[in-house]
């Protein structure tokens, strides 16, 4: 089987249930999720012994991002329904809570950066936010699995918590945005 089909040379692509222009909102949404998945793979390739424990979660996320893309690429749910479900988002919340228990409290915005892994996770966070915006735009036009939107919203929070934990484990301090007032409540 050849990797090229030539069927998209005229600016159309196949989705589950039809063909659309390559700049269709549906293609933009799942394409941004695909971009995010590639960056998650890049982060995985940079994991060292201090953060290697993140690898199974990141691989699970890669599979779930494919599920998100599949749900968005479908004009309507298949016979088995959608792939993304609320339990996946709940799992992300558990992971967020675990990383946040490890992290020090923050009171100001922080600058993305620190270790290569932390910086990569911040890139994932921002691409995830863009993917979420694309999904919101798509949902304004077409029916979608709204669980994808919730999943992406929570996933960006997880990337933030993981980025902070990666820095902490490496002994790198987060850099506070110094021109900011305190914007987060201090935990008692």
UniProtKB/TrEMBL annotation:
Taxonomic classification: Bacteria, Bacillati, Bacillota, Bacilli, Bacillales
NCBIfam families per record: PduO_Nterm
UniProt-listed Enzyme Commission number(s): 2.5.1.17
Domain Cobalamin adenosyltransferase-like, chain residue ranges per copy: 3-165
InterPro entries membership: CblAdoTrfase-like, CblAdoTrfase-like_sf, PduO-typ
UniProtKB keywords: ATP-binding, Cobalamin biosynthesis, Nucleotide-binding, Transferase
Catalysis performed (reactions): 2 cob(II)alamin + reduced [electron-transfer flavoprotein] + 2 ATP = 2 adenosylcob(III)alamin + 2 triphosphate + oxidized [electron-transfer flavoprotein] + 3 H(+); 2 cob(II)yrinate a,c diamide + reduced [electron-transfer flavoprotein] + 2 ATP = 2 adenosylcob(III)yrinate a,c-diamide + 2 triphosphate + oxidized [electron-transfer flavoprotein] + 3 H(+)
EC category name: transferase
GO molecular function: corrinoid adenosyltransferase activity
Identification of the protein by name: Corrinoid adenosyltransferase
Family note: Belongs to the Cob(I)alamin adenosyltransferase family.
Ribonucleoprotein listed as a keyword: no
Pathway where this protein functions: Cofactor biosynthesis; adenosylcobalamin biosynthesis; adenosylcobalamin from cob(II)yrinate a,c-diamide: step 2/7
